[in-house]
Amino acid sequence: KAGVTQTPRYLIKTRGQQVTLSCSPISGHRSVSWYQQTPGQGLQFLFEYFSETQRNKGNFPGRFSGRQFSNSRSEMNVSTLELGDSALYLCASSTGRNSPLHFGNGTRLTVT
Amino acid sequence: AQTVTQSQPEMSVQEAETVTLSCTYDTSESDYYLFWYKQPPSRQMILVIRQEAYKQQNATENRFSVNFQKAAKSFSLKISDSQLGDAAMYFCAYRGPQGGSEKLVFGKGTKLTVNP
């Protein structure tokens, strides 16, 4: 079974631009979560989606948004990028029934 | 709000020896889940072991075992017969009650070095 796939693996953007990151969950998984990982703040929860509905949201500004499609694939968008948005963005999927989260390899975003 | 604390930023162990990584957490819930994840340089977070709070028996997965002390809110990971491939960042994580959000609260991590 294929794992969680995140694209792209690396991304370089300029301040003020916007970016869209993609996540394809494991087949059959209906829950997708996103996390931001930085050296200073560690791993922080961004959002959680289940069957196209946002189930939970972390403490991030409105510039961070996400969505989930009917095939469970998810995207997250960051608008008006700031230098502090440079981070590893991790996506995780699960069946949504209290099963463990399975993570992808992440997208490394660098904002210059 | 729930918090997870890993007090050891770095640990090292000799190959074939045993090492214990510490984790404490704070919650007012009685039902929850605890996890240890491993993140090698490849960046992918890999589940090492999981513990349900309602289970008194400590979880084990091959060379990995936990010491779960619910009253003390402590959840340490023991790695036996350490191997070079065990070198990675290890994160302790908390998840709330069954039926709720699957949001994980992570500790800051412990970098484990395995010396040959």
Describe this entry's structure for a reader.
With 112 residues, chain A is an all-beta fold. Helices cover 0% and strands 54% of the residues of chain A. The model of chain A has no long low-confidence stretch (mean pLDDT 95). With 116 residues, chain B is mainly beta. Chain B is globular and about 45 Å long. Chain B has strands spanning 3-5, 10-14, 19-21, 24-26, 33-39, 46-52, 60-61, 64-69, 74-79, 88-95, 104-106, 110-115. In chain B, strand 7 and strand 8 form a beta hairpin. Chain A binds chain B through residues 31, 33, 35, 42-43, 45, 48, 55-56, 58, 88, 90, 92, 94, 96, 98, 100-106, 108, and chain B through 33, 35, 37, 42-47, 50, 91, 98-99, 101-109.
Furnish the topology, listing elements before pairings.
The complex is a heterodimer of chains A (112) and B (116).
Chain A: E1 5-7, E2 10-13, E3 19-24, E4 31-38, E5 42-50, E6 53-57, E7 64-68, E8 74-78, E9 87-94, E10 102-103, E11 107-111
Parallel strand pairs in A: 2-11
Antiparallel strand pairs in A: 1-3, 3-8, 4-5, 4-9, 5-6, 7-8, 9-10, 9-11
Chain B: E1 3-5, E2 10-14, E3 19-21, E4 24-26, E5 33-39, E6 46-52, E7 60-61, E8 64-69, E9 74-79, E10 88-95, E11 104-106, E12 110-115
Parallel strand pairs in B: 2-12
Antiparallel strand pairs in B: 1-4, 3-9, 5-6, 5-10, 7-8, 8-9, 10-11, 10-12
